[in-house]
Amino acid sequence: MKKLVIVFLFLVSFVNLWSQSTSVSTSVSNNSYLSISVSDTDFEYNYTASFDKENTESVKEVIEEVLGGALDKNTRTAYWEGTGYSVQLRQGRVKIEMEKEATTKSFQLKIEDLADQISETLGSEDTPEPPKTPQRS
Question: What is the average pLDDT across 69-87?
């Protein structure tokens, strides 16, 4: 029984070691009210921006150009959702979440480009790039 437990713990440790993903995030802000944060792992991509409320309509227009009309919207919020992704827009805040395993590579690039377009609309030169992490050998 003791050997079985040791073997089990070894296997769990081994699987955990090889299944870890690299998670990096970064943010940028400037003198006006703008904060952008990006997290990109092997499994998901997240983009969050907080900004002046006056820019909400411009951000909404960018999202609608890429994803079409919102599934759910009212005067203060709009929501887009599909297989493996969601986009939430509120006054002065946008949040994009995407599960990479549930989306195609071309759609992942489309969402990352959408984040770049939102950043440009908000006055940031570029969406911040997560720092490069060294590859495991």
Answer: 93
